[in-house]
Amino acid sequence: MTNALPPLHDGHAPFTLQELFREALYAFEEWDTELTEPIVTFEGRVVPISQVFEAMRQCDDIVPMNIVGAVTERLTKPWEGEGPLDQMSFSTAARVMGVLVRKRLLANGMPEIVAVAERPAERHSDN
Length: 127
Description:
Blueprint: H1 15-29, E1 39-42, E2 45-48, H2 49-55, H3 65-72, H4 90-107, H5 111-118
Antiparallel strand pairs: 1-2
Helix pairs in contact: 1-2, 1-4, 2-4, 4-5
């Protein structure tokens, strides 16, 4: 559950959440053939890496360059940032990693989990 993680403050993540993002990224890198999503621990609680990435989707903080490289090497198209020196926000990195987790789950034969993860929270209709 995402609320088990520290909240963002005006678009900024506490250092502990940024470190947890780094751990989730490393867990993704080590995810080989296992069917289940990797986990990290935060304050004694087990957290799937997708929840860490979801918690950072609104974070405006700039990602350190070593993390940018770990994210961009997984992209099929070159990434170009809009800021000076091609800076990447945690929001962008979290969105990329969230998609990659869903793709990996789908490839591992877990489409029902992916379908739930991709479903919008609410749908509004004008009809």
